[in-house]
């Protein structure tokens, strides 16, 4: 999926560059900033006259400083999605910045918050500034919006694919009958567990635990799951995991378990691995 997204974005960027080259000589002026755009801590200038590129995570705000020319008279920002005008933005795709927000030779702060519908789309912003003398300066910003792993947890079902027993030289310990198990982490903090149809070979009792809720810490380092036994519905247990990996496609959780009752140590370490799948 990741390679496909990169390939799609590459095709879109190539198409965008081709379309823009009809208006300006982007080869000979490749290093010219056009209407200069900056984002603190990022180098967003790319080859091509007035061409810039950045990325943002869904829910995060991209904050761009637009350096205005002296005696600036107007500034418009046109938004496109996959090279087509986004008519829901501004007025039929064009946002005209209020003159009171413009200062000659100063900066205008452009803000845009990535949305779910922007993910894996080619989001473009064309900036056009005109001076009192009629001169025009342009720049184009391409913004790639990525899904936020935290938010994405509730959009997928999470297939249980691996259980590594770290103390046993990283032995794969998942049972064949566990491989059809999956979990749903709902946006409201509740969760559901599904154990598939195969319960033979060590999974005869797996349906005795019913999962109720989940919680991911603010810093995304700790993951908790609360469950109860079907015969003790008022008795809840919370397992606490350390998050080893959290992406839009993978979730890997580490837990320490006391197995001294089974002849093992009181600190056996397991890593549970889950892969995202469509709901």
From TrEMBL:
Domain of life: Bacteria
Signal sequence segment: 1-19
Keywords tagged on the record: Signal
Protein known as: Uncharacterized protein
Organism per entry: Dawidia cretensis
